[in-house]
TrEMBL record:
Domain of life: Bacteria
GO cellular component: plasma membrane-derived thylakoid lumen
Name by which UniProt lists this protein: Cytochrome c domain-containing protein
Primary residence: other
InterPro entries the UniProt entry points to: Cyt_c-like_dom (IPR009056), Cyt_c-like_dom_sf (IPR036909), Cyt_C6 (IPR023655), Cyt_C_IC (IPR008168)
Organism: Dulcicalothrix desertica PCC 7102
UniProt keyword Thylakoid, yes or no: yes
Domain (Cytochrome c) ranges: 25-105
Amino acid sequence: MNKLKKLVVLVLLLIVITIQPAYAEDIGAGSKIFEANCAGCHINGGNIVRRGKNLFKKALKRNGIDSMEAITELVTNGKNNMPAYKDKLTAPEIQDVATYVLQQAENNWRH
């Protein structure tokens, strides 16, 4: 019985270690997509067009764009000065860049 408990604990530990978060898209791809398409206006999470519309956590929350769904919607369809990328990026690429933006916002855009 003791060996069985150890085996169960080991299996559960391996499962927990290998499971990725729900929105763990390809961060590396998201970074590359961001650099190629977004960094021109949003360098280091800022915004050269409208300062208050930056990509820092506080601004994302204030503007109601602090979720995967909201960022995906904005990148896909654009809004005001923000262009739509639905004809330029695939849905998985948009998911990757949204994941990257949320991750960077959590890290305060520190590399």
